[in-house]
Design goal:
Layout lengths: L1 H10 L7 E4 L4 E7 L2 E7 L3 H7 L1 E2 L3 E6 L11 E3 L1 H14 L4 H10 L2 E6 L15 E8 L2 E2 L5 E2 L6 E2 L2 E2 L4 H12 L8 E2 L2
Antiparallel strand pairs: 1-2, 2-3, 3-5, 4-13, 5-6, 7-8, 8-9, 8-10, 11-12
């Protein structure tokens, strides 16, 4: 993925508001704001951004100015508004996932971790940056309203952008699509 991203970034000449590249379900856009040109990473495809703009909740993070190859991870700034949406989706939907319920049953008590699917070690020692959060478990069941986000999770790491399991990713997309028109700050292309 990083090779494709670097190639796409180096092949773009003049500033463009169109999606510059697609990154496994994510898009990189160059946008203009009162502070100048910057780039943002979003879940929304170009067709939707062209028609509706880019709401703050759909911006995963941004780069000040134009991304340089050396700044791919270091220059990335996560978007607090997106993080709130992401964690609310996780809190609402993970307890209903069969895999999470099975894990809670096996665990008995303690915690069930929500692991970023991009982690290179899903069956082994998972780095803190790849743990999205945790739910408390009692008597083999996930405790309602017990989700705690991990403040050390990184939306973007040397292993790439965060990845959710497919059902959860779909719920996140649906939630962003359901946002009321007046509730989101939109950046027009």
């Amino acid at each position: 993925m990083w090779k494709r991203l670097k190639q796409a970034l180096s092949s773009v000449g003049a500033a463009s508001s169109a999606a510059r590249t697609r990154l496994g379900g994510f898009y990189l856009y160059r946008v203009s704001s009162p502070g100048g040109l910057h780039e943002v990473v979003s879940l929304l495809p170009p067709e939707q951004v062209t028609n509706e703009g880019l709401c703050a909740e759909a911006i995963i993070g941004s780069y000040a100015g134009i991304v340089e190859e050396r700044d791919l991870v270091e220059g990335f700034r996560p978007n607090r508004v997106f993080l709130e949406v992401l964690h609310s989706v996780i809190a609402a939907h993970v307890p209903m996932l069969p895999a999470a319920q099975d894990s809670a049953r096996r665990q008995g008590s303690g915690a069930v971790l929500v692991i970023d699917a991009r982690t290179p070690t899903p069956g082994g020692q998972v780095p803190s940056r790849d743990v999205l959060g945790a739910f408390s478990v009692e008597d083999g069941a996930i405790v309602p309203d017990s989700y705690q986000p991990n403040p050390h999770h990184q939306l973007l790491s040397a292993d790439g952008l965060f990845q959710l399991e497919p059902t959860l990713h779909q719920r996140l997309i649906e939630r962003i699509h359901r946002l009321p028109d007046g509730s989101a700050t939109r950046e027009r292309r």
